[in-house]
Amino acid sequence: MSIEEMEETEDQKERGRSRRQKEEEPFSWKKEIISWIQIIIAAVVIALVLNNFIIANSRVPTGSMENTIMSKSRVIGSRLSYINSDPERGDVIIFKFPDNRELYYVKRVIGLPGETVNIIDGKVYINDSDTPLDEPYLPEPMEGSYGPYTVPEGCYFMMGDNRNNSLDARFWKNQFVPKKDIMAKVLFCYYPRIGKVE
Fold first, then answer.
1. InterPro entries recorded for this chain (predicted)?
2. Alpha-carbon dihedral 194, 91, 104, 59, rounded to 10 degrees
3. Which residues have a catalytic role annotated?
4. pLDDT digits (tens, 9 = 90+) for 143-198
5. What does the alpha-carbon distance between residue 105 and residue 95 come to, in Å, rounded to a whole number?
6. What's the predicted TM-score (pTM) here?
7. What domains appear along the chain, each with residue ranges and CATH number?
8. How many C-beta atoms lie closer than 10 Å to residue 19's C-beta?
């Protein structure tokens, strides 16, 4: 028998012994419980990291964003969207409500920092433009005139898509949302139906 064959035989014997030892190990409830606890702890840590640093989950209780987001829908937003960029007009975002920072609202960005927003006969005008904003997401024409609102630097002016039934910045005591209070950009709705939010 050659040296190579002898080494191969020894390897096979060793693997056989190792397999028998594993088969002979008695079941241990203690090891099983510890294993499950480790899995649960890992899952909790992953969920906390996701929820606090990567995604934001929010419920929209009213019809203020219809037909983009229907009443009682749940949405997911990305907390990473504005780390290296600023919100853009038209973004649907989750933010802390300026009149009660314990509450989270979901609305659309209309006015950017330094802009003047004027609403005349249901049309939105930015910086005295003669052309109103193109807002294809509105379910019906807006009624009334509001403003003008001059947006401070570092802040945003928010409105709901269902303008005639939306308690938005037109009616708040503190009408502008600081960037630091913007939590996430809404990406999609997952309840009661799944769909991308634009």
1. LexA/Signal_pep-like_sf, Pept_S26A_signal_pept_1, Pept_S26A_signal_pept_1_Lys-AS, Peptidase_S26
2. -10
3. 64, 107
4. 999 999 999 999 999 999 999 999 999 999 999 999 999 999 999 999 998 999 98
5. 5
6. 0.78
7. 53-196 (2.10.109.10)
8. 10
